[in-house]
Fold EKC/KEOPS complex subunit BUD32.
Amino acid sequence: MIKPQERFFSEGQGYFGPRENPKTETHCNVWDWNQLRMVKIKGTAKLFPPDEDKKTLILAQFADYLSLEVRAVTANDDGLLSALSTDPEEDDTTFVPYLPFSTYSKLQELDRLGPGVDLSLYEDESRDPQKVALKLNPLGKPRILQMAWKELNLLKSLPSHPNIVPFDRVVVEDVESRVIGFTAKYIAGGTLDNPKVPFRFEWIKQLSQLVDFLNLELGIMHQDIALRNLLIDPDTYKLLLFDFDWAACGKKGLLDSRDDVTGVVFTLYELITTNTHFTSIPFWERNMDMVQSISEWTCNRELDSDVSKFRNFLHEWVGTRKSDGNMEQYLNAPNRLTWPDLPTAPDRNVPFELRKTLDGEPSWRTGPRMRRTAMAKEQYCFRWERPPQSRLLKKVEN
């Protein structure tokens, strides 16, 4: 089940007039990871002030009761629903030009694990059931498309490793065989951000060795080492890392202050203390001395060794990485992985009318477009929308 606090997100609101005027008409697009669709919320600047984020809270009240045909809702100044619209012109969902592929798997949804990740089931070529985590890419933003392409290519290129969640298959839809995501082996038990999960000293050793392998052998910087991206395999009792969508290859995609050594330091601190304060600090404002300089790490998790043993190991490992020309070794990794750049999907080359000029002439362009624009051009659009999980659970119960 997707956590309530992770279900919705929005990138702000648009004001049709002075935002200081409480009566100014205001529109907000909110993405729902549960139903994989966007809903526009209309209101006033009084309901949606610039310095507050109320839109996701408002939509959360009634999202599960809306028909999938509803494109926009209007809320009064008290946040109560006052009107609905099914007009397709209200739909600002971005068109995603998925790349074509040749084969596909038939997947059955079992659960919705998190934003863009489902637990799914399929039968392989031997008709054996395979339970997998399906990572979806329903958002058409250029940066997210690049990240999805990079992660898919990186995972299928990685050598098999006991501490990386195994890649499974590329997933395509069944009309035009467009790539819509990929699957990885499903690891039961949840991630290490659950403070009730005990932690072994051997696992921090495995994590540091894995980071050394990725950084210094393959020239890969994960850039998102965090408890939410770490699992313990209940069959092998080994630590597993996943979620490579922020990964960098050499200088390509490399971000300042997001190196994996720093990531391990903050992750171990949060794991032992369960203190999440530093996760709220932007990574470019953090440095590992913030936690390494803390004299005592108060332990709030079950460990198989004393905290001092973890800290001493961490201190020695960080010192080794710093003294060995960390960045130079990373940039000169002997077995660097490579993959092609994201190709331009043929759909991008279909011109569409963006607007009218002052002379009334149509202004044409190619490139990113709204889904409603692509549909008007009779381009094929994969439709992600689905009923809320709560509705499906009620159907199962009945």
Observations:
- The CA atoms of residues 1 and 112 lie 5 Å apart.
